[in-house]
Amino acid sequence: MPASSSPPSPGSASSGAPEGEAASRTAVVVIGAGPAGLTVANVLRAAGVACVVLEAESREFIERRPRAGFVEEWAVRALARHGLADRILQQAETQGEFEFRFDGERHSVRTARLSGRRHFVYPQPLLVGDLLAAYADRAGGAIRFGVRDVRLHGLDGERPAVSYRDPDTGRRHRIACDHIVGADGARGVSRAAIPGDRVRITRHDHGVAWLAVLAEAPPSADGVVFGIHPRGFGAHMARSAHVTRYYLEIGAGDRAADWPDERVWSELRARLAADGARPLREGPLTEKTVLAMHDYVVEPMAYGRLHLAGDAAHLVAPIAAKGMNLALNDALELAAALIADHRGDGRRLAGYSAACLRRVWQYLEFSQWLSQVLHGASSGDRFRAGTATARLRRLLGSEAAAKAFAGLYLGEDADL
After folding, report:
1. Alpha carbon of 311 to those of 77, 177, 188, 278: distances in Å?
2. Which has the closest alpha carbon to 415: 88, 74, 177, 159?
3. For residues 329 and 309, what is the distance between their CA atoms, to the nearest angstrom?
4. Dihedral Cα 140, 145, 151, 154, nearest 10 deg
5. Alpha helix locations (H) across 248-351?
6. Which of 136, 201, 280, 386 is most buried, taking the most CB atoms under 10 A from its CB?
């Protein structure tokens, strides 16, 4: 059963709830129970700042929803300082090396040696489960699953509120609060609640799509493999001893149904082939999802008493595995800012958007750089292919270039 604590203390007429709505009050309402929303909620609750989390899906759904699997070391350390990384540190494998394969050759990049940091391999559903257990089960944090018709009120005033419809009773509830955290993703209600003339959304399309598949098969390499091939990019990413994630660059209009298992394996064999490489260990494909390679950034990441975090504020194509890490950066910065504001110092909250956007734009630039390297050979453009190869050979031939790449690939340390 979904976990939740007792509801917030009943509000009074000052909560502004229309007749017939159940009214309550808390300090912060968090919309969305993904990594960003749950991290904010955990840190707030530990600091004694009351909050309520609202989630449109069921607990079972969000704990199983397939998502990213790489957590940067700075993020793990920051979560550990809040007591939220025990299982990551105990169970997650780490990776500090990967391969480029092109022109039939293998080229290793030892990112851990170059940067002093590693990636933790820990799928997002596991992290969500950990954060839910910490917040709802152990700390008794208030969370409502399956909420419907969520609406935001009074964002530009002193008395914001969030209302929703209870999925079991059909009754509307209204929660008055001091601040709202919008962490409900790209299609959520939070970003849509900001007037169009008060926000700027910058979009970028990489012009390609990826087919993401999960194979019930052991890994065929020790870590990440990026295959660069005239027929398209291909990638291998170990997830566990028995499951492997693969990616294939496909046509922008392709559907998952256009890629039966044998076609997927045939292309993976071609694009990941290299002298001395182990043969692919094949198995049933349990998931096929087409990913459009595009980015967007919302500026600013706040409007009045609403503060966006994670995919509600920015989307980074999964080219460099940055999305979940940016969400955690937002969440940790926002939680610290909300705690300071609750204690009477609003300066950090006023600077929240600017502080997070610096890292967002840096990660977007790196993702675009890597996209050009990975997709140049298959672009059909001789100039793009030639410059992509030149970048790749500089990376592989220069210690300074390799160190700079490794630092960005594994993420910069953050003071959170």
Report:
1. 22, 23, 9, 37
2. 74
3. 9
4. 10
5. 261-271, 323-342, 347-350
6. 136
d(CA 400, CA 398): 5
Q: Cβ(215)–Cβ(282) under 8 Å?
A: yes
DSSP, collapsed to helix, strand or coil, labels residue 220 as: coil
Provide the whole-model pTM.
0.90
SS3 84: coil
Integer CA distances (angstroms), 30 to 34, 149, 361, in order: 10, 15, 25
CB of 263 within 8 A of CB of 248?
A: no
Alpha helices in 55-199 (DSSP H): 59-62, 73-81, 86-91, 111-115, 124-132, 189-192
The partner residues of 213 in beta bridges, in order of sequence, read 246, 288
d(CA 97, CA 113) in angstroms, rounded, equals: 9
Helical pair 323-342 and 73-81, crossing angle rounded to 10 deg: 30
For 90-112, the DSSP string reads HH-EEE--EEEEETTEEEEE-HH
Count the alpha carbons within 13 Å of 71 in the hemisphere toward its beta carbon.
30
The DSSP secondary structure of 382-396, one letter per residue, reads HHHHHHHHHHHHHHH
Looking up tokens 């009754």 gives 171
From first to last of the 416 residues of the chain, give the pLDDT tens digit. 333 333 443 333 334 556 668 899 999 999 999 999 999 999 999 999 999 999 999 999 999 887 767 899 999 999 999 999 999 999 998 988 899 999 999 999 999 999 999 999 898 999 999 999 999 999 999 999 999 999 999 999 999 999 999 999 999 999 999 999 999 999 999 999 999 999 999 999 998 999 999 999 999 998 899 999 999 999 998 877 888 999 999 998 899 999 999 999 999 999 999 999 999 999 999 999 999 899 999 999 999 999 999 999 999 998 988 999 999 999 999 999 999 999 999 999 999 999 999 999 999 999 999 999 999 999 999 999 999 999 999 999 999 999 999 999 998 765 55
Q: Given its phi and psi angles, is residue 376 left (phi above 0), alpha (psi -120 to 50 degrees) or beta?
A: alpha
Rounded-to-integer distance, Cα 369 and Cα 151, Å: 39
Query: In which element (H, E) is residue 299 found?
Result: strand 285-299
**Per-residue b or e along 326-337, where b marks 16 or more CB atoms closer than 10 Å to that residue's CB:** bbbbbbbbbbbb
What is the rounded CA–CA span in Å between residue 331 and residue 221? 34
